[in-house]
Amino acid sequence: MGGVSARLEDLPLRDDLRGMTPYGAPQAPLPIALNVNENTHPVPEDVADDIMDSIALALREVNRYPDREFTALREGFADYLGHGLTRDQIWAANGSNEVLQHVLQAFAGPGRTAFGFGPTYSMYPLLTRATGASWVAGTRAADYTIDAEDAASQIAAVDPDVIFLCSPNNPTGTPLGLDVIEAAYEASTGVVVVDEAYHEFAPHEERSALTLLPGRERLIVSRTMSKAFAFAGARVGYLAADPAVVDALRLVRLPYHLSALTQAAASAALRHAPAMLRMVDDIAAQRDRIIATTAALGYTPHDSWTNFVLFGGVDDPAITWQRLYDRGVLIRDVGIAHHLRVTAGTEEETTAFLDALASVGSDA
Ligand SMILES: *Cc1c(COP(=O)(O)O)cnc(C)c1O
After folding, report:
1. Cα–Cα 20 to 30 A to 30, which of 13, 84, 158, 288?
2. 167 lines ligand 1 (CB under 6 A)
3. CATH number of the domain at 25-41+275-363, please?
4. What pTM did the predictor assign?
5. So where are the chain's domains?
6. 363 CA to centre of ligand 1 in angstroms
7. What ligand 1 atom has the least distance to the C-alpha of 169?
8. Mean of the pLDDT values across residues 126-136?
9. Is 45-271 CATH 3.30.830.10?
C-alpha cells in the first residue's frame, strides 16, 4: 500500500474515543526490567516441559474449535482457589484485563458509571471508557488507605454501576480491609469487583475477599496468572462470583475466546501450582528489602502487600527514571508527583536496582 498514512484525527473515530491515549508502559530491552510487576523468575524447567507436552497434545486437535466453556480450566481454578468454590462460579479470559472488560461490557456501558479510589490501576478508566461508560475517581487518605465509613459515603454519593476495589492496590501496594469491601457492598446497588491480582504476595494468614462471596450475588473477586504465577505471557486471568454473574459474562464474550492452546497451557500450569508459586516468598523478601533500603537512602517507601514498592521523596521522577534507564534499569513512573514504582525481582535484579538508585541519588 502506498501513500501517506492518515492521522487519528482524520478517521471517523467514535467521538468518545477522541483525545484518549492507549495504555503505554514502555517496553524496552533493558537488562533489568522491573516496570510492569511481572514475576521475573522463569517457569521451572520441568514444569515448562509438562506445559509443552500439554500444548503439543492440544495442537493435534487445533483444527477444531476449543471447548467454549473451558470446563477443565474452570475446574482447575475452582480447585486452586478452594473455599468450596465450584466451576459454575468461575470465569476466565485472556488476562484479567479481558475478564474486567467482560464485567464492564455486561454491567457498565453507555450511560452507566464505574468507580474506583484513585490512584488505582490505570486500566480501570481505559476499560470503562472503551465500553462507553464514564469513570468517576474517588479519593484515598494521604497514605493511600481507605476506611469503611469514607468508602461507603463516597460510593453512596456516586451510586456507580461497577465499583473497583484493588486489593492490595496498584500502583501504591496498599492493603484493603475486608470491612471496607463489606461497607462498599452495603452502600451500593452495583457490582463490586475486588481485584486480587497480587493476593498471593500478601501475608499468608490474610483472608481473601473470596470468603465474602456467600450471600453476596453482586460481589466479584478477580485474580490473574500474570503476577505470582509467572505466566504473564500466556495471558490468563479469572474470577469467582455467583453463577448468575458468570451467565451474564457469557452474553458479552466472543465465542471460543480462550484458545485451545491457552486452555491447555493454563490447566497444565495449575497442576503445578506449588512449583509455579515457589518464588513468591522470595519475591516478598526482596520487596521488604526494597522498602528497607529505599528508606535508608532517604526515600519514603509505602507499605506494600504486593510484589512492588511505590516510593516517594523523589525530587524529579522523570530525571531519576532516566538515570536508572541509562544504567540499564527499567522501573515505572506512574504519574504520582515525587514517586516512582519498582517491581521486586530476583535477588540479583533487586540488588542491581538498589545499587543504581544509590548511585543516582535523590537530587535532580
Ligand atoms: C497486572 C494487573 C492485572 C492483570 O493483568 P492481566 O491482564 O491478567 O495480565 C489486573 N489488575 C491489576 C491491579 C494489575 O496490577
Report:
1. 288
2. no
3. 3.90.1150.10
4. 0.96
5. 25-41+275-363, 45-271
6. 33
7. 13
8. 96
9. no
